[in-house]
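Dear support,

I submitted the protein below through the web form. The confirmation email said the job was done, but the results page showed an empty box. After a refresh the structure appeared. I'm attaching both so you can tell me whether what I see now is the final result or a partial one.
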Amino acid sequence: MVRNEPDQSTSDMGVDDRPPWRHTILLGLQHVLVMYAGVVVVPMVVGTALGLGQDEIATLVCIDLVLAGIGTVLQSLGVWKFGIRMPLVVGAASNGIVPMILIGQTKGLPTVYGSLLVAGILWVLLAPFFGSLLRLFPAVVTGTVITLIGLTLIPVGLRLIAGKNPDAPGYGAPGNLLLAGFTVLLVVLFSRFLKGLLGQISLLLALVVAAAVGWLFGAGSLAEVGAGPVIGVPLPFHYGPLQFDIPSILLFLIIVLVLTVEASGQGLAVGQVVGREVGPAEVSRLLRVDGLMTTLSGIFSGFAYTTFGQNIGLIALTKVRSRYPVAVGGVILVLLGVIQPIGRLVAAIPQPVIGAVAVVTFAALTVSGIELLSKVDFGRSGNLIVVMVSLGIGLVPTGAPEFYHQLPFVAQVFLHSGVATGTVLAVVLNALFHLREGKHA
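What the results page shows now:
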C-alpha cells in the first residue's frame, strides 16, 4: 500500500512513500541531470559514426529521450508484469554502439532495427528464465557487482571533465578542472550546510550554480537553445521498412545476454541501497522493461536499452528511496525529447559540471558496494578469491580499454563489458567454492 505522509522526512521514506509534489519534481529533475549525459551519448556516437547529419542525430537523441523516459516510468511504477517498481532509470546501452555501427555501415539501419525488434521480443519472453538465476547472487557476489559498477562508472565522469583523447590539445584543460573542482566544492558545501529538501537536492543546486558560472565564463554555449523546432514526436519506421538478417540478430542477442547480466546486477544493487529484497520475480519484471524498450526501439528507431546504474549512487547519497521522484524523472525525459528547446538547454550544461556530479554519485555507489562487502565473512574459504579475482578482471576494460582488441569480435563484445565479465566470474567462483555446502556465501 502506498503511504502518503507529507510531514515525514523525505530521507526516512520507503520505496512506496510519496514525497510532496514540489520535492518529487525537484528530486526527479536531479535524477535526470545525473543520467542525462549517459542517455544522449549513445545516439551522438552512433549518428556520427554512421555519417548522419546534425538533424538526424538530433532526431535520434529525441527518440532516445522519449523511449528512456517511458522505460524509466515503467521501471519505477510498474504495469502488470513489467517494471521492478523501484527507483531505477532506463537508457540506451553503450554495449549496443559497436553492433549498431557495424551492421549500419554494412547492411543499413533497417537491418539494425529489424535485429533490435527480434532481440527485444526474445528478451521479454526469456525474462523469467533469467530471473530464476538470482539465487546465484549472494552477498559476496552482489557486493562485488555493486562495487564494480561504481568503479567502472567513475572514469565515465572523469572523461566528461578532462576529455576522451589524451592527445587532444584541450585534454585536461585547467579551466575544465577548475570548473569541475568548483562543482564538487559546491556539492560538499551544500550537503554540509543545507537542511531538509535543499540538502537532499544539493547535487541539483550545485549543478545549476556551476552551470551558470560555466556559461558566464564561456564554458558551453546557449546559442543553439532557441534554434530548431519546438515540438518533435518520434514517428515509426523513420528509416524505412525493417529488414531481418540472422547473423545480425544473433549479434544483438549476444548484446542482450551481456545486458541481462548487467541489469540483474543493477536490480540487486538498488534493492540493497533501498533496503528491499530483490528476488527472481523482481528481476524478471526489470528485464521485461529492458526488452520491451528494445523492441519499441526497433519500431521507433531507438537503441538497445538497459537499466542504468548511475542513479543508484544518487539514491545512496541522498537517502531518498522513494520511486516516485524517479518516475517523475521519466516524465521529464519524455518532455525533454518532445519539447526540444528544453532538451537543448540541458544539453548545453558544460561537460565538466556533469562529469563532476557523475564522479560524486558513482563514488557513492562504490561505497554502497563496499558497505555490503564489509558484512561478508572473509575468513570463510573462497570469499576473498571471489572478490579479488572478479574485481581485478572486471576492471580490465576500465584500466586498459584495448586489452582484448586482438580477440575475436564476439569475445570482445562480452569482455569489453567489465561489469558483465566480473559478474559472471563472481557467480562462477562463488558456486565453485560454496556449491557443495548447500548454500552460498
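Response: this is the final, complete result; the empty box was a page-load delay. Strands lie at 90-92, 305-307.
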